[in-house]
Write a structure and sequence with these properties.
Helix content: 40-55%
Radius of gyration: 24 Å
Number of strands: 22
Distance between the termini: 66 Å
Shape: globular
Oligomer: single chain
Structural class: alpha/beta
């Protein structure tokens, strides 16, 4: 039930607090922030019990015989998000040691584009009888890339028709976004599509859970929902994709849009019981993890590029003018703060790539040496890699292990390492992968500059800023002075800033950011000789980038097609246990 009465504000001299909750890929983090100066007083973290679902639906949710998933799928269980409110928020309040009655607002940010199919009351489809074992009834996480064929059709048709919204997205929309994922749902599970009343960004669904009111946030509507100049793609366009998709906007997507920093509603009694917070406090309109981080870093002026570096990287920046940038994720009027054009670009894999390599590419003796040195494997490899001269490893890598978001917008692309020999060591490949992600960011920076959008500063937030070698590599490759955000919880702090505005404690996001935003942490200045050395390597990266990414050699797409053909045969083999068991017994006898 929605509360209609705002929480009464404390007296003018009383200390007030706000809660920011950052929903990441694997966990949710809550932070308690003091309103007057942005001081972070306590935090709590809750790991999603079901993490990212990529192979088989979780049996504890879907039951016995849980469905297997095709390749490129990435799902989540929506109740994991509610559990963040039940666990991380009370933990943060306890850690801060504050009186919960002094909390005046709460705000959340989310990964995007992360979509939840729901009924009219907000109930996710997977929680309905008969739908728990249907993959399309679950949350499609941002990194769900199985809708690439639908995205390709959307892009091809939009280009053929000269749709005026397409240049706002750099000429291509992503398989990660709302329309491609929605079209995939329709075409692969029409019954689930018909049962769904709303196709909702998780950023808005969690706000709905908090205040009992569905308000669509302006950020994801613009960047992920193709909402430009007050309208979505036309019904005529959608019908040309699929006649059954014609009313997608009017019947499944369109809803009241809330301005960033406004209150979507007020905390319900049920959500107050989950969180331990006062019923009736302000609940801010939802937002995206990257975009809320810009105010947290005090980066609300044009030319200040903020990179939120974690499993992936999202680049956001304000600009004074509208320009079309090839391969960007979008430009939205007021997409970050009112009065400026908010630009977004991104890389689908960064920390995920480093994590993959340390999990599958490192021999046991390296793990043993790291343990003996009292270091994690990342720290150990970084130490070894930091001793190398630039180019000493003889390698160039492409950072496409999770596809390419910007500037190619193609999730059929895959990773490459060129130059390996029998002398190549793990630390060589590790450093080459670090450098590859920096080359990817340089490609984005160049695209902005070449399109008339100046990049003057580079500010890093997220978990990867702790790697000092990585930060210096980024400064040297981009040629920009790099500063890190002083807060370890940039997105959560940014959400807290929005909560303070929603609670009426500041007039707007700019004023709140000036008072509550974090001061810089470490600063990295480009080293001239390193800049020159990396320039030579970047030209080799760009040659490979264009060769594999711009159609000269489509081998990556062909390999994906071969993989898709092979996987059904493998699944069929797995579904025949009797024959498989007999084969194993025969092998055992022959051995």
């Amino acid at each position: 039930m929605q509360s209609n009465t705002p929480h009464p504000s404390s007296g003018p001299d009383a200390e007030n607090y706000v809660i920011g909750v950052d929903y990441g890929t694997l966990s949710g983090r809550a932070v308690v922030v003091r309103v007057r100066d942005g001081k972070e007083l306590g935090s709590g973290v809750f790991d999603y019990p079901h993490a990212v679902v990529t192979d088989v639906l979780p049996r504890d949710v879907a039951g016995d015989g849980a469905a297997r998933l095709p390749g490129e799928w990435a799902l989540q269980v929506p109740n994991d998000y509610r559990d963040v409110l039940r666990n991380a928020v009370p933990a943060a309040v306890a850690d801060a040691g504050i009186d919960p009655s002094a909390v005046v607002g709460i705000a959340t940010d989310f990964t995007a584009c992360t979509m939840v199919p729901v009924k009219s009351d907000g109930t996710p489809l997977n929680e309905l009888d008969g739908f728990a074992n249907r993959p399309h009834a679950y949350v499609k996480l941002w990194r769900h890339h199985a809708a690439q064929p639908q995205a390709d059709r959307i892009n091809k048709l939009a280009e053929e028709r000269g749709e005026d919204w397409l240049p706002r997205y750099g000429g291509l929309i992503s398989s990660e976004w709302e329309f491609a994922k929605g079209l995939q749902l329709l075409e692969e599970d029409a019954a689930a599509y018909a049962e769904m009343d709303h196709w909702v960004e998780a950023a808005d669904w969690i706000v709905w859970q908090l205040c009992g009111k569905y308000v669509r946030n302006a950020c994801t509507a613009g960047y992920k929902g193709i909402y430009q100049d007050g309208r979505y793609p036309s019904e005529d366009f959608l019908a040309a994709l699929n006649p059954e998709f014609a009313d997608f906007v009017s019947s499944k997507l369109e809803h009241t849009i809330g301005r960033l920093g406004d209150a979507a509603g007020y905390l319900t009694a049920e959500a107050a019981a989950w969180t331990g917070l006062p019923e009736g406090i302000a609940v801010a309109v939802g937002n995206v993890d990257a975009h809320v981080t810009a105010p947290a870093a005090k980066a609300v002026d044009p030319g200040q590029l903020v990179a939120i570096m974690g499993t992936s990287t999202c680049h956001v920046m304000n600009g004074a003018e509208l320009h079309e940038v090839p391969g960007m994720c979008g430009v939205v009027d007021g997409g970050i703060v009112d009065g400026l054009w908010g630009y977004e670009a991104g890389q689908s894999g960064v920390g995920d790539i480093f994590g993959w390599f340390t999990k599958y590419g490192i021999p046991p003796e390296y793990h043993q040496a790291a343990e003996a040195a009292g270091l994690g494997i990342h720290e150990y490899l970084t130490d070894l890699a930091s001793r190398q001269a630039i180019g000493e490893h003889g390698l160039i890598a492409l950072d496409w292990h999770s596809g390419n978001r910007s500037v190619l917008v193609d999730h059929e692309l895959s990773g490459v390492v060129v130059g390996q020999t029998l002398a190549t060591r793990p630390e060589d490949t590790y450093r080459a992968l670090l450098e590859a992600t920096a080359f990817g960011t340089r490609t984005i920076v160049d695209a902005f500059r070449d399109s008339g959008v100046p990049v003057k500063e580079f500010i890093v937030a997220g978990g990867l800023l702790k790697n000092k070698l990585l930060m210096q590599i980024y400064a040297d490759i981009t040629g920009l002075q790099l500063s890190t955000i002083g807060s370890a919880q940039g997105p959560a702090l940014g959400s807290a800033i929005h909560a303070a505005v929603a609670a009426g404690k500041y007039a707007d996001i700019r004023v709140a950011a000036a008072a509550m935003g974090s001061e810089p942490g470490d600063v990295y200045t480009p080293i001239p000789e390193n800049v020159a050395a990396y320039e030579e390597l970047f030209q080799e990266y760009r040659t490979l980038h264009d060769y594999f990414g711009r159609g000269t050699n489509d081998v990556m797409h062909r390999l994906k097609a071969i993989q898709r053909r092979a996987k059904p045969a493998l699944d069929a083999a797995h579904s025949a246990p009797a024959e498989s068991d007999a084969a194993e017994r025969a092998v055992g006898v022959s051995v």
